[in-house]
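Quick check before the chapter quiz. The format below is the same one you will see on the exam, so make sure you can read both the input and the output lines.
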Amino acid sequence: MGKRRGQPIHGWIAIDKPEGLSSAAVVARVRRFLDAAKAGHAGTLDPLATGIIPIALGEATKTVSFAMDGHKTYEFTAVWGVATDTDDREGKTTTTSDVRPTREAILAALPRFVGEIDQVPPIYSAIKVDGERAYALARGGENFELKSRKINVYSFDLISENESETTFFRVHCGKGTYIRSLVRDLAQALGTVGHIGTLRRTACGVFNESAAISLDKWEALGHSPDALAYLRPVRTVLDDIPALALTPQEAHRLRHGQSIALFPLAQRNPQAKLTQGMPVQAVLGETLVALAEVGNGILLSSRVMAYE
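Here is the expected output.
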């Protein structure tokens, strides 16, 4: 029998990512620091970006999709007059313009970028094109086009300006939104070009700055209870999903891939308006037993938690 690698640590940690590290590098450092058996993240941040990156450990990795569905908030600077191939300050200049948008022009244009809008992702992105990452194709000099897709922008606010060269914004948006593309498209709407100067994510789903800790500060705590105090339960990202209380016998059945009758669950959980196909949390006390789905008179597990 093979030796188990790493410790069975389960839950979420919100790390305030420093500039210069990739999301994968942050996950690797957290996993190595805790000697955790399994780790992942919810929502990639570019190396130049700072801010909130939720790290899933152990069985929390089975809930990553729910975290990625959460709303996000970004604060960033748009640099006017220079376009780059990556749509951020790390790219090569491709186009310049002498046009600098006025505050009035910016405010007049912003409503066009709020609501459900079409957006073409940057060519330097992790989207796959015929099985290859777009950024790999771009670096290889390949010519290709990315299709536009629907995104949701809930608010787009001008915060401040630095003369006419840069403008500071805050955006509250849904999943799949590329801030680099927003700046690129806003600049074009204003008759100029532009790119991202600085970028910070201040919230990602239920995780925000008040609950996060910088990577260096967290590692400085060492292997102490203070470090593990930042570990939040697996269920943290499931607040919007109804929870159904199980009996020990029902929990046993779900853990072994068996369905359980829905009627007694509905009687014990009258606040949960159960409809066929809806996802639920199946819990025993405060412990998540499984992510489950309501069937025709039964409850079926879709992802069973294994905490050992």
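If your answer matched, good. The two ends are 16 Å apart (CA to CA).
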